[in-house]
Amino acid sequence: MDQVDGLPLRINDLSIKLKLSQSATSRMLTRFENTCGVITRKKDEQDKRSVRISLTSHGQDLLAQAQAKLAQLNHNQSGDPELVGQAIITLAQMGEMPR
Predict the structure, then answer these.
(1) 54 alpha carbon, distance to own chain's centre
(2) Alpha carbons 1 and 13: distance in angstroms, whole number
(3) Is there a contact between 96 and 36 (Cβ–Cβ < 8 Å)?
(4) For the stretch 71-99, what's the b/e string if a residue is b when 16 or more beta carbons lie within 10 angstroms of its beta carbon?
(5) Which three-class secondary structure state does DSSP give residue 20?
């Protein structure tokens, strides 16, 4: 997950990047936090009105797996069905895996 000024991303910044409302982004993050265990939220120490989000170690592992699969797909543009299937499974697991 991107950082801003070396700090975890603010929910508002993520909303802007995703072109979603803050409430839609917050609902999505709640799902990721409660069902997948891939993010954590923490109050911003400098701005108490803001909440910063970061990936858990589990989230970092899943992101690395997904990035590796996507890199393989980009490198092997022939569309190998097995590789595509593995990438889809990895990406789906990011949204479905319990903690």
Answers:
(1) 9
(2) 11
(3) yes
(4) eebeeeeeeeeeeeebbeebeeebeeeee
(5) coil
Range 39-44, long-range pairs (CB < 8 A, 24+ positions): 39/1, 41/11, 42/8, 44/7, 44/10
**3-state DSSP call for residue 28?**
helix
Angle between helix axes 81-96 and 57-75 (nearest 10 degrees) is 160
| 2 phi and psi angles, rounded to 5 deg | -65, 160
Tokens matching residue 74: 């980009």
Q: Which strand ranges, in their side-by-side order, compose the sheet holding 3-4?
A: 3-4, 7-10, 51-55, 39-43
CA distance 29 to 75: 31
pTM, two decimal places: 0.63
What would the pLDDT profile of 71-92 be if each residue is shown by its tens digit? 877 776 656 677 777 777 776 7
| Tokens encoding 35 | 């069902």
